[in-house]
Amino acid sequence: MNPFVLALIASTALVSSVYAADPIKIGLSGPFTGGSSSMGVSMRDGVKLATEEINKAGGVLGRPLQLIERDDEAKNEVGVQVAQELINKEQVVATLGFINTGVAQAAQRFYQEAEIPVINNVATGSVITKQFVGGDYKANYVFRTAANDTIQSAMIAEEAIKRQGFKKPAILNDSTNYGMLGRADLTAALEKLGVKTVAEEKFNIGDTDMTAQVLKAKEAGADVILTYAIGPELAQIANAMGKLGWKVPMIGSWTLSMASFIDTAGANGDGAMMPQTFIEVPSTPKRKAFIEAYHKAYGGDRMPSPVSAAQGYDSVYLLAAAIKQAGSTDGRKIREALENLNEKVEGVVTIYDHPYTAADHEAYTSNIPVFGLVKGGRVIPAHPEDVAGDKALRIKTKS
Amino acid sequence: MDILAQLIVSGISVGMIYGIIAFGYQLTFATSKTLNFGQGEALAVGALVGLSVINFLIGQSLGSFTAYLIMLPVVFAFGLVQGTVVEFLGVRQAIRTKSEAGWIMATIALGIIFRNLAENIWGRDALRFPSPLPEAALVIGPVRIQPMEIAIVIGAILLMVAVELFNRTSIYGKAVVATSNDRDAAGLMGINTRIVITFSYALSSLSAAFAGVLVAPVTLTGATMGAVLGLKAFAVAIIGGLSSGVGVVVGGLILGITETLTGYYISTGYKDVPGLVLLLLVLSIKPSGLFGKAAIKKV
What we know:
The complex is a heterodimer of chains A (399) and B (299).
Chain A: H1 3-20, E1 24-30, H2 37-56, E2 65-71, H3 76-89, E3 94-97, H4 101-114, E4 118-120, E5 142-144, H5 149-163, E6 169-174, H6 177-192, E7 199-203, H7 211-219, E8 224-228, H8 231-244, E9 250-252, H9 259-265, E10 273-276, H10 285-298, H11 306-326, H12 331-339, E11 345-346, E12 351-352, E13 370-375, E14 378-381
Parallel strand pairs in A: 1-2, 1-3, 3-4, 4-5, 6-7, 6-8, 8-9
Antiparallel strand pairs in A: 10-13, 11-12, 13-14
Chain B: H1 2-32, H2 39-59, H3 64-96, H4 102-122, E1 138-140, E2 143-145, H5 147-169, H6 171-181, H7 183-188, H8 193-215, H9 226-240, H10 245-265, H11 273-285
Antiparallel strand pairs in B: 1-2
């Protein structure tokens, strides 16, 4: 054979071996527009940052990771379309994302059926990881790197009643699934501490006047306001309190750290407290590197939603470790690897040491989040002693 | 008693917003017996245009109050143009062909187009609108009120009074009144009713855009901000009567005040119910609205 032809054959072989390293497709579903987009965009940026780092270090199984981003617009029906597209058309290996509990509930059914793992890195509804447990389901494909509402509501009750000694809490929540389920969790947590609410008021998304709700809480003699809602309406509450000249502390779910709350409420929002798995403070070398890399890549000096960015970032590393351990991109094998992850993954939020088991798909326990406090347009640790020294890094408790 | 006063004051400021949007419905209904169902979107787009203008002016190191005042004529002009476009594309053809429902579909469609345009230009996030007045509340007797809430009430009244004065005193206004009373007769008297109708649409969008920049500083600005407001204003227009300018103001106040009172004295979960019950009552007892003139249709 003539050497030229040989060389040609050799070079085609080379080329095809390069092509053999197809990227590993990972789906990314979240609201990148609309009222919860500050969380969605931060999550996406965290995920992208981790993916770039992994690809720079040679990828996983010798293959680069490729993100397929889709905007679910925080709408259940769009989330379902996105899920079907990612599964059937893009044939993703796993999906990360979901900011909204409703979207997660509607969409993850398709991943469960297709046996493709999903890591919820922001949505907090308690039911999310329990949707496919027991019954006819042999295995559960839904995982989470976020502090669920059971954890958060217990923390809120504990902080308000035990730590700060308030006796007459009022709950204000929106009338969405998020707000109503959160209120149920909160009242249950308060009852455990033997405290009854003095007022429970709700409002709709888009309500412009909260005078009636706030006045009711005030007249009922509330000494603290507990909230379960999202940014814009939370800001309306803070502003109504400011208008009525009535200042009691606001303690609520982690959404009080949303940029839309902090920016719209301005001075009225100062002092609001919420559970946070990550606060933008460089308390460990890993966190310092993450914060610097984030701002280098996306600019600004404040993440729109630091919690979402950090949890998104960590979810990629967990998935990458699982794919590596599985040695394959088969959904079933990745799920098994996630449930018994041998590698210790050092993330931004915590160090993940066997974060999941077959029965437990929650990466965080109640000792991981700490309280954040809104001050001068930023979220800072509410109790510096909680994050001092070796308490900065909190690791999941083993049951 | 103090609480009642506070609730009523808050209800009035919410109600005036409903009233001014409903006033826009009333303007076009009077002249052409048609409505712009995209009124909520006209409000949102007007507010967003206002936001861009005021941010630009503040960027030129103007104070937010001066910037707000300079922004107003720009928003008014935009409202006039936007209303003309709606009338030209959506309503004119339907009126010419005496179509019963064509204008309904057309104005809804135009509303959706304007909302999508706004989403593409300004994004889907709710944006903060710089407040022209201090945000600290004023204390008047037992009542605490934000300066902007007072501005809403005054602004709404000023606009409606200006339109009424125009109608009553100027020759052009008389043409509007004549067209409202009897379009065919006005046409025979040499009034160009087509221009009058176009003008009423322009004015209607102007009042929506004005409502938008009035309400934006106390809420947030975004492409979807008008959806709920537009719908509630429609209820107001029906309660008060679509043919009466005073009716929509009173209707707005009734709805605004019942909402806050129900929210406090009954339950915040049922805040919207009494207003809608009232709507059903009015429709079954006096379909032309509390202040409306019953139309006699001769066959």
